[in-house]
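Aim 2 progress. For Anterior gradient protein 3, the working sequence is reproduced below.
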Amino acid sequence: IMFHSTLALSLLLIAVSSNLAMAIKKEKRVPQTLSRGWGDEITWVQTYEEGLYQAKKSNKPLMVIHHLEDCQYCQALKKAFAENEEVQEMAQNNFVMLNLMHETTDKNLSPDGQYVPRIMFVDPSLTVRADITGRYSNRLYTYEPQDIPFLIENMKKALRLIQTEL
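Predicted structure tokens for this construct:
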């Protein structure tokens, strides 16, 4: 009888732990280390170099978001960016996406200084688009949460430029 109950208990434990493992696996569906909260459905590249390679290969513009964890402006923009369906959809389908918490060695990505948040576009010919800017003359590539419609226009502009120029 002792053996019997041990076996039953073992089987019960196995059943419980495999159900737990399944629940944990379901929960961790998308290992979102690269999104950092900017959009979990978006496929993010890990490095600027990888972004350039993917942009050239896929003929899609690369969107580079510079941000820092402890920057309240970045956090506010990130929230607006992640909650906007049009931004998320375009980012998923039409862009190679990269968000960076450090500066790149490419000086073209900081034409007017290194500040955050900063969003820049690089076209598939690997040209940094210094002509796609935000609304502020003192920080050309910054956006605020209320500027999301303007960012959407700039995303569309980046896509149009590819069609007309390349």
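Residues 2-27 form the longest helix (26 residues). This observation will guide construct design in the next reporting period.
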